[in-house]
Amino acid sequence: MDNWLQQASSVLQEQGSDPETSIRKHKAFFGKPNQKILDECLKAGQDIVAVLEKPDQSEIQKSMDDVRARWKVFYLLLLK
In terms of CB atoms within 10 Å, which of 5, 17, 28, 29 comes out highest? Predict the structure, then answer.
């Protein structure tokens, strides 16, 4: 998930001289819905949190919150 978000950020930040090429690259990368990736990642995180002791849960929860926040930023950039 983290790797995909990094790749998505790179694709969105690329600035080519040809708008048509940029559009093709964006469509190729973002053409498939990836909400399922996020949902599966967060579900796995919740499953892990459920079996951890209370003190150990915060690190996993923080990671999940970070991924969720990065996803939201990506999604908002995609809508622009």
Answer: 5
Phi, psi of 29 (to 5 degrees): -80, -45
pTM above 0.70, yes or no: no
Name 61's Cβ contacts closer than 8 Å, sequence gap at least 6: 45, 49
Distance in angstroms (rounded) separating the CA atoms of residues 17 and 78: 19
Calculate the alpha carbon distances from 37 to 12, 20, 50, 67 in Å.
19, 28, 20, 11
Residues 6+ away with beta carbon under 8 Å from 78: 12, 30
User: What are the residue ranges spanned by the domains of the chain?
Assistant: 2-79
